[in-house]
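FORM 12-B: Structure-to-Sequence Request
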């Protein structure tokens, strides 16, 4: 039974799932919004919101922490601290939104767009 399970597995092992979530985070930061399935969007949301919260305070330690979470993606780290951090300086959470789309025709998966507000 699936009582009190706090995350989705996506049919992957731990390391694969971790890389998968990181890839989604990097693409979301790079493009500002991505179209994916609803489950994936809901799963990546808290990770991205934590990174934006860290990026609100620009320090060397925070830059290193964000860089380690994004596997040393320099452009995305810079974008977080230059664009998203100052933009949400006075906002205390809720930096992203998930908009539901019609289901995918081929397999019936529920689609969604996750984007920065």
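FORM 12-B RESPONSE
SEQUENCE OUT:
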């Amino acid at each position: 039974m699936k009582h009190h399970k706090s995350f989705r597995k996506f049919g992957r092992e731990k390391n694969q799932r971790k890389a998968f979530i990181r890839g989604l985070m990097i693409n979301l930061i790079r493009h500002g919004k991505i179209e994916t399935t609803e489950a994936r969007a809901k799963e990546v949301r808290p990770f991205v919101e934590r990174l934006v919260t860290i990026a609100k305070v620009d320090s060397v330690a925070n830059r290193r922490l964000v860089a380690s979470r994004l596997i040393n993606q320099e452009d995305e780290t810079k974008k977080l601290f230059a664009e998203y951090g100052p933009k949400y300086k006075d906002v205390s959470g809720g930096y992203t939104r998930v908009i539901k789309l019609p289901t995918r025709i081929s397999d019936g998966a529920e689609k969604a767009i996750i984007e920065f507000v």
